Amino acid sequence: LRQFKVASEAESRLDARIESIYKEYPQVETTMLSSPGVISVYHVWRGGQDPSEAQQTLEELVKRMKDRLGEALFTEAEETLAEVIGRLLRDRGLTLALAESCTGGLIGERITDVPGSSDYFLGGVISYSNQVKSELLGVEPVLLEQYGAVSAPVAEEMAKGARERLAADLALSITGIAGPGGGSAEKPVGTVFFGYADSQGVDSTRLLLPGDRAAVRMRSANMALDWLRRKLL
Amino acid sequence: LRQFKVASEAESRLDARIESIYKEYPQVETTMLSSPGVISVYHVWRGGQDPSEAQQTLEELVKRMKDRLGEALFTEAEETLAEVIGRLLRDRGLTLALAESCTGGLIGERITDVPGSSDYFLGGVISYSNQVKSELLGVEPVLLEQYGAVSAPVAEEMAKGARERLAADLALSITGIAGPGGGSAEKPVGTVFFGYADSQGVDSTRLLLPGDRAAVRMRSANMALDWLRRKLL
């Protein structure tokens, strides 16, 4: 048995990327177990009793998967995205702050699920209302009016504000529309923006995620954590 | 079938309170399904084909349960503590803010799991580090030094600070030791303090909860939500 975990928006999308590889290995059974935003891939040898053939084939298959998937493959161990991020932050001696809107605390919950996370996690602001975005994170009300709470400029200001007010090295922010209400033609339900701030400046990205309220929240939390992880590589 | 949900620290504790009642009803099968902090109780009629006898017996049994359990019984419907709290806040036109330490965002995640929660939930502060407790919530560093971060005075100041800084009608706070590290003889792992603030003043309470890190966090989130719910009755 060999296993690895991939951060991905959907199993179908991951499958399209790796199908051409694992189909070349009929003696290996490949299965995927997906939760919204994180997919675990398992390779089980079914080709017979020769342990060295099994090991060699699995090694080769996993090597090809790693080459294809690159940074999207985040672990070959039994660890979560939050644990990988914790290791990266600890190794580099960096502290983290959060600013969460649509996830309402879910990302903080994941980060602090890891024992010892107080070594690198300072805390965060759950800025569910616009007033909290302005008063606790310093997001200019004119930005909220002009671009809306779910926008790249607001995500960036949230991250910048969290980094400054919590005196952290890095900050991650998220603002989005989890539904069922609140969607529009321009920004449908599932639209999320992530923001990032460090000593070099700010960045943001936009995604459109499928699913109901619970799935959008879980998927966006995992995709945000994965975006942060890639920033740390 | 009749069902209800009870906020309780442990199934054994709930069972000790209601056992003497349901044992009087051998024609009703009573089962409990527990998650840390919330226990669902199911009564299924097994006494025969007479629907009026079934209904009458179940009515009487549930009435006796309600009398025995009082406010601990929080719903007879398929709803969560967060939904019940949302209904109470909405009915009374009140807004809520949070200050979370050991739960790291879990309570906010629960509250915002409810669609439309932005009507009454303004946001919160995840004050994982002491510095965030002081700078974002206004907890005096001397309190943290004198009583420790996990203490009644700090829980109360956290709630007061969240209420003021987020301009909410009510605030709920939580600070505790989820483990595995951080426990002491005076404050073992599982010690949590809840704080509450409204226009009348502040209050706090202390609990000692069983379980590992994940169970302490989940149990303390549910017990904190239940404490808030009782404040709203």
Characterise the protein shown here.
Two copies of one chain form a homodimer. With 233 residues, the first copy, chain A, is α+β, with helices and mostly antiparallel strands. Chain A is built from eight helices and nine strands. The first copy, chain A, has helices at residues 11-22, 51-69, 81-92, 106-112, 130-137, 141-147, 152-165, 213-232, and strands at residues 2-7, 28-35, 38-45, 73-75, 96-100, 121-127, 170-176, 191-198, 201-208. In chain A, the strands form two sheets. In chain A, strands 6-5-7-8-9 form a five-stranded mixed beta sheet, with helices on both faces. The first copy, chain A, has a four-stranded antiparallel beta sheet with strand order 2-3-1-4. In chain A, strand 8 and strand 9 (201-208) form a beta hairpin. In chain A, helix 1 (11-22) packs across helix 2 and helix 3 (81-92) packs parallel to helix 8. Chain A starts with a strand and ends with a helix. At the A-B interface, helix 4, strand 6, helix 5 and helix 8 of A face helix 4, strand 6, helix 5 and helix 8 of B. Strand 6 (121-127) of chain A pairs antiparallel with strand 6 (121-127) of chain B, so a sheet runs across the interface.
